[in-house]
């Protein structure tokens, strides 16, 4: 039944609920926003979820967005020192005739959380909890966290997931009409600079210069490659 100590027990609120139901029936999206909680490090997310677990809101649907470095459970990719993002994409595309069986089991995690929620057993969790569950169910924790975002009321993530437009696009994060909370927001300036900065080594510049030399010398899109080659020469 309705609460007796808050506004949802009034007739006005019931009227609003009815109008919201009509909106849903007409195909309009719900106006209830998600809360995006951005932090500087993954360690801070662990601290916040631990505190959330101690509150009355521990059973609120949530998810944590993080990189493959923290959530990949594929034995080869997770133990590799090379670029895990590239290795993951290659597996998903089946470039070498191999696929990722953990990716195909993603639905097991969301079903597990849905089952827990139905029995009132849902509780705030951390990245380590999700990875452990992924290993137990043989399901990818990285993509499971993204899938759980659809039904989540609170989404925890590092700053750059909210600030960097490329990451927002790849993670399908839409902040319009949502609530954004930035923990220790005085760190935002540094994070914003990092999001639009890029670092290269001298060896990478020399390798790029050699490739561009080959392109120009073989008349492959000279107009495009000559300015790039000039930049590499000036930097080296």
TrEMBL record:
GO cellular component: nucleus
Alphabetic keyword roster: ATP-binding, Hydrolase, Nucleotide-binding
Top-level lineage group: Eukaryota
The Helicase ATP-binding domain, residue ranges: 1-232
GO biological process: double-strand break repair involved in meiotic recombination; nucleotide-excision repair
Record bears the keyword Metal-binding: no
InterPro entries: DinG/Rad3-like, Helic_SF1/SF2_ATP-bd_DinG/Rad3, Helicase-like_DEXD_c2, P-loop_NTPase, RAD3-like_helicase_DEAD
Molecular-function GO term, any one: DNA helicase activity
Protein's name according to its UniProt entry: FANCJ protein
Taxonomic source organism: Chionis minor
């Amino acid at each position: 039944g309705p609460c007796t100590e808050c506004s949802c027990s009034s007739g006005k609120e019931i009227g609003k609920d009815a109008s919201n139901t009509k909106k849903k029936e007409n195909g309009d999206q719900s106006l209830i926003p998600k809360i995006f909680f951005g932090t500087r490090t993954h360690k801070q997310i662990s601290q916040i979820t631990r505190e959330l677990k101690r509150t009355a809101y521990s059973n609120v649907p949530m998810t944590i967005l993080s990189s493959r470095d923290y959530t990949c459970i594929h034995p080869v990719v997770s133990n590799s020192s090379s670029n895990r993002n590239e290795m993951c994409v290659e597996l998903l595309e089946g470039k070498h005739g191999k696929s990722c069986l953990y990716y195909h089991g993603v639905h097991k995690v969301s079903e597990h959380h849905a089952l827990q929620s139905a029995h009132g057993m849902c509780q705030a969790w951390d990245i380590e909890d999700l990875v452990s569950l992924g290993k137990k169910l043989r399901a990818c924790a990285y993509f499971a966290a993204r899938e759980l975002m659809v039904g989540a009321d609170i989404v925890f993530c590092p700053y750059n997931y909210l600030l960097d437009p490329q990451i927002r696009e790849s993670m399908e994060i839409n902040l319009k009409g949502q609530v954004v909370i930035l923990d220790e927001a005085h760190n935002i300036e540094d994070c914003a600079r990092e999001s639009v900065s890029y670092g290269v080594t001298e060896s990478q510049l020399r390798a790029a210069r050699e490739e561009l030399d080959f392109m120009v010398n073989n008349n492959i899109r000279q107009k495009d490659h000559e300015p790039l080659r000039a930049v590499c020469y000036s930097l080296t």
